[in-house]
Amino acid sequence: MRAVVMAGGSGSRLRPLTIERPKPMVPIVNKPAMSHILDLLKRHNITEVIITVQYLADMIQDFFGDGSSLGMQIHYSVEETPLGTAGSVKNAQDFLDDTFLVISGDALTNFNLGKLVEYHISKGTLATLALYNLPNPMDYGVITLANDGQIVRFQEKPSRGSVMSDYINTGIYVLQPEVLDFFEPNTPFDFANDLFPMLHQQGYPLYGYVSEGYWCDVGNIPEYIRANADALEGRVEGLDLGRYLGNGIWAGQDVEIAPTARLEGPIYLGQSVQIKSGAVIYGPTVIRDYTVVDNEAHIDRSILWRNCYIGERAQISGAVILRQCSLKANATVFEGTVIGDGTIVGESAVIHPGVKIWPGKEVEPGATVNSSIIWGSQGRRVLFGRHGVTGVVNIDLTPEFSAKLGAAFGATLSKGSIVTINRDMHRSPRMIKRAIISGLPSAGINVWDLGSQPLPVARYYTKICGAEGGVHVRLSPFDERVVDIHFMDGQGLNLSKNKERDVERVFFREDFRRVYLDDIGSIEYAQQVKERYIEDFLKHLNTRAIQDASFDLVVDFADGAVASTLPAILDKLNCNVVSLNANIERTNFSLNPIQFQMALKQMQIITTALGTQLGARLNPGGERIFLVDDRGYLLAGTTACAAMVELALRDAPGSTVAIPIDLPNLFEHIATRHGGRVIRTETDLDALIKTTCSEKVIIGGDGKGNFIFPDFHCAVDGMMALAKILEFLATQRASLGDIVSKLPPYHMAERKVSCVWEAKARVMRLINEKFESYRTQIINGAKINLAADKWVLIVPDPDQPYFRVIVEATSQGEAETLADEYAQVIEKLSPLE
């Protein structure tokens, strides 16, 4: 049997380890990562290997040669340009005329490949994927299996709120040669993202084999450190670490250890390593060939590559020191530091935690380094969350961090392009916004400052002005200490997950684009922002009908930027408005849940007392809207959404609406009586927006006060939602109270069930297996359909360690009972085994 070893990756997330070598050549303990993979293949009697290479290909070819020294036959397939995992294997198709194995050359594993091959043959399938059970699988491709092992769903790096299983794709496959006939040569094509989903959609049965043993993809520096530690601590059975001296110490030839040195394993010492008098070394530590550790030096949980010198009384803790580095006497290197090849750290210099030093640098004696030399430092692993980039101001989000963030975003865009930037009224977003502005021009980006506009206005203007992206900085509505930074694409929408990863990749690689003097971007104030929004806004309304109705309204502006735009719109619509909280100079926009409910109650009381036709509260940014009808009832989010859908379908019968999967079947009943259709989406707001704007949908709503009217623009807009309600009521000569009173009844209950992060994916897999026969929709979480208008939805929360259990039933009592019952099911499945 032949194997294809994929070794073309550049390992950008491992920089600076991979600046001077391809990722498969990064050493794990005593040899390059790919050497361990070839050893594994040889142990399973697979000795004929094709290695696909691209980045620094000569280094791999020179090291392994034709494989004769290993007792193997090695052939090479060279990619001129990156072709993806499947595309690179396609290049070697002439060698592959029978069942073959594909394996990554830069991971660490001890899987039983023989059992994997036997399983593949027994299933008679085109492809079998080796899977691994991982508690937190969100950074990997996730696979959902049927009970017979057949793959039923692929998820590529799912969010915490959408993950369906804890089985991950390890990149190890057993394939039939025919799979390579499904796509063209010399075309970028990926196994996980392209080929396997395509085969699955075409009805070809694919299988997953859950492998036992050890697996680590060594995808970043913390994982690299962990892989070395796991190897030393015996978690990777089958590795040959060389001569064992006892007490958890392995050593190569000609190692010298002074009698007064103190070593506490597990430790690996390479060939001709010298440990001098009084040196102290705590494991897990790797010290590779020809390295000298001088008198009284102290090394703890670190990895030192070949030919390094560690001076007298130097201290290294939790660091990675690359090849041919010299740390002089009394130098100190702290946790998480990576020092690149050939770097000299002067006497008594101090390198602070998390610093990266690129190859060939020199740190002066006595210097203190607290940021990465040349490229800068970073301390976060992931930037983006559900609310963009968030953090406590001046702690997580500092001006220097924000400037680098702006430079990283700019580096993902075309040089000379335009980025709009906007903020709310608080001092903290103003500071962070100005820092971001300083970073963008350094990457050759022209900045158009929108000032302080409602977020829908900023999104709209970003789309129409020809910008390639946008930024909005706001105080978090949940915590006044926290600032949220939203990044937008050229359509004014939040960045896609792939675009977010592009920004993160640039930021964490610390590889910012620096343009020459003449290419530095400009900073200008945008003109006619509000006016252009209002002009187009009114064109999308039946203004005459609204003006003739002359509505009496109570509107709570929440002291936000929305108060600078919405009053002018309502004035043009001939509305008589009682304004609440319209002071845009206020700087406190965050309300706790009790304060928020009090604000809604105040609006309800005033609306009722004045007898107006409608009461509305918008959030400070102008996106969400909360309603009180003419009867004085404060409408629940689902009820308000249903009323809006009812009005929209009355206005345009036979149309389509988009609604998340966690809202009741009420919406299908409304659509049916108007000849319409409901498209269900994931619970994530971005998914709702994407569906609303990609399908022929007239309205999207999430039951939480967010509405999208794609005819105007593809973004949540509370101001447009308010105006459309007025238009519908005017043209249909109806009152909101009448509309609400005629809605079909619904009964729902919800529970939150605590579950540690590590167990979430496993619980989702077990839920899907347990209720497989009841599931009819795979959109988000596990939806269990019990009967007409009776279902249970179990969804992992993306930001908190709990599950949401949402239930609809034919009575409120039944809904509460079912919610309790299924919450108990999760509680029983949650404990880690």
Question: Descriptors for this entry?
Answer:
833 residues; alpha/beta; Spore Coat Polysaccharide Biosynthesis Protein SpsA, Chain A; UDP N-Acetylglucosamine Acyltransferase, domain 1; Alpha-D-Glucose-1,6-Bisphosphate, Chain A, domain 3; 8-stranded mixed beta sheet; 21 helices; 29% helix
Question: Describe it for me?
Answer:
By secondary structure, the protein is α/β, with parallel strands linked by helices. The chain has 5 domains: 2-216, Spore Coat Polysaccharide Biosynthesis Protein SpsA, Chain A, CATH 3.90.550; 242-369, Hexapeptide repeat proteins (UDP N-Acetylglucosamine Acyltransferase, domain 1, 3 Solenoid), CATH 2.160.10.10; 384-527, Alpha-D-Glucose-1,6-Bisphosphate, Chain A, domain 3; 533-741, Alpha-D-Glucose-1,6-Bisphosphate, subunit A, domain 3 (Alpha-D-Glucose-1,6-Bisphosphate, Chain A, domain 3, 3-Layer(aba) Sandwich); 747-829, TATA-Binding Protein (2-Layer Sandwich). It contains 21 helices and 54 strands. Strand 43 (552-556), helix 13 and strand 44 form a beta-alpha-beta unit. It starts with a strand and ends with a helix.
CATH architecture of the largest domain: Alpha-Beta Complex
Query: Into which percentage range does the β-strand content fall?
Result: 25-35%
State the CATH class of the largest domain. Alpha Beta
Number of helices: 21
Give the topology, please.
Layout: E1 2-7, E2 27-28, E3 31-32, H1 33-43, E4 48-53, H2 57-64, E5 73-78, H3 84-90, E6 100-104, E7 108-109, H4 113-123, E8 127-133, E9 141-145, E10 151-156, E11 167-175, H5 191-201, E12 207-210, E13 215-216, H6 221-232, E14 243-246, E15 249-251, E16 256-257, E17 262-264, E18 267-269, E19 274-275, E20 280-282, E21 285-287, E22 292-293, E23 298-300, E24 303-304, E25 309-310, E26 315-317, E27 320-321, E28 326-327, E29 332-333, E30 338-339, E31 344-345, E32 350-351, E33 356-357, E34 362-363, E35 368-369, E36 384-385, E37 388-392, H7 399-411, E38 418-423, H8 427-439, E39 446-449, H9 455-464, E40 469-475, E41 482-489, H10 497-509, E42 523-525, H11 529-539, H12 543-549, E43 552-556, H13 566-572, E44 576-580, H14 593-610, E45 614-618, E46 625-628, H15 637-651, E47 656-660, H16 666-673, E48 677-681, H17 685-694, E49 699-701, E50 707-708, H18 718-732, H19 736-741, E51 747-754, H20 757-770, E52 782-787, E53 790-796, E54 802-809, H21 812-829
Helix pairs in contact: 7-8, 7-10, 9-11, 12-18, 15-16, 15-18
